[in-house]
Amino acid sequence: MSKGVKVTYNDDGTVSIELHIVVENGVNIATVCRSIMGEVKYVVNLNTGVTVKAVNVCVDSVTV
Question: In this structure, which long-range contacts are made by residues 19-22, counting pairs with CB atoms below 8 Å and at least 24 apart in sequence?
C-alpha cells in the first residue's frame, strides 16, 4: 500500500497529483473521490496559480 501525495510536474507547466487515501466502510467511495478531486484541483490552482491537469485518488483501504 502506497501512502501520501505524489505531484508530477508536466512539460506543459501543469501538475498531476496522485493521492492515496483510506475510507470508512459505508461511505460512497465514488462521491468521496469526486469531491476530493474537485477540491484539490480548486485549492491548488487558487493558492499557486498552477493549472492542475489531473487528480488521481487511489483508495488503498476501507476501514470497518
Answer: 19/55, 19/56, 19/57, 19/58, 20/58, 20/60, 21/57, 21/58, 21/59, 21/60, 22/59, 22/60, 22/61, 22/62, 22/63
